[in-house]
Amino acid sequence: MNSNPLRELAHHGQSVWLDYIERDFLARGELARLVVDDNVTGVTSNPAIFEKAIAGGAAYRDALAALAGRPSAEAVETLMVEDIRHACEVLAPVHARTDMRDGFVSIEVSPELAHDEAATIDAALRLSRRIARANLMIKVPGTPAGLRATEELIARGLSVNVTLLFAVPTYRNVVAAYERGLARRHAAGLPLHGVASVASFFVSRVDTLVDKLLADKGETGAALAGRAAIANAKLAYRVYQSQQASRDWQTLAAAGAQPQRLLWASTGTKSPLMSDVIYVDELIGPDTVNTVPPATLDAFRDHGRARTTLTSGMDEADATMKALAGLGISIDQVTDTLLEEGLLLFQQAYQRLLGATGPT
């Protein structure tokens, strides 16, 4: 029997989460099968995933009929809560087996709250109460307001997935927000064990935009195509390594805190010129998560290679960023643009989702 590369990733310190959720998929036991066969240990969702699931098929027809007449935002949240709760129950044994370090399911607060700290906190607390599962993660965008909300939610003992991260400097701020939240809990004499967080660092979209900018840069630009995203991710991981070695973190870890793992998001390959598993193959390393769409999961199972790759090539990553700057491409401008675009795309998906459930 051939080995399964997906299962082997755990030997290199990486968890595999599924970037997908849908009601019939859960009801058929498909998630439970992936947990057993492929060692999938988590699930992520976002407004775009739910929009495709709820608007794209018959799985929600009866549930939508039962919710007829309710405000669309209430109906959408009810549908999402039911699916997330079901997924949490499937993954509860993983959460218990890993001593509350894995087995999480993420649900995102409304993307329309991205710049409203207080409303984000209120929405996160409401979702946490409604779903009422220990392995729930609340997804909060990595805006300044989102990071302030993250600190508060961590201080209150919620687990948080900080999403839409593209820039290494922003990731540093995410790390600081997580530590501040934990430090507040510790100072108040509250337990740190069981409070978890991931920092969702987006990958493929960086290459998509940078490669467009490289298209008119001649041979030098062509040589850099498809390299920016992995370089950017590796530099983020270097920040993680530095944070783990810091005295402040060691104090929190000694009190029971667990690392805020980097989660590689947007790992489906967009370019037909690149390997369909490149954003898994090249980002395998300790204390990380890769959340993959179903097609990438299948591809890596078929022809992926499980070996530690994330900790090599750091000098090359630095060189790639310097070369991009030398061509007049600002990675800061690229990541700022991607954050704005990402927020807009999720807001548009959320509006389509509201429209699919009836009148507001």
Description:
By secondary structure, this protein is an alpha/beta fold. It has one domain (5-356): Alpha-Beta Barrel (TIM Barrel), CATH 3.20.20.70. Helices cover 56% and strands 11% of the residues. The protein is built from 17 helices and eight strands. An eight-stranded parallel beta sheet has the order 2-1-8-7-6-5-4-3. Helix 6 (72-97) packs across helix 17, helix 8 packs parallel to helix 9 (168-187) and helix 10 (204-214) packs across helix 17 (331-356). The relative contact order is 0.15.
Task: Give the key terms.
8 strands, TIM Barrel, about 350 residues, about 10% strand, alpha/beta, eight-stranded parallel sheet
In a nutshell, what does this entry contain?
This protein has a single domain (5-356), classed as Aldolase class I (TIM Barrel). The chain is 56% helix and 11% strand. It contains 17 helices and eight strands.
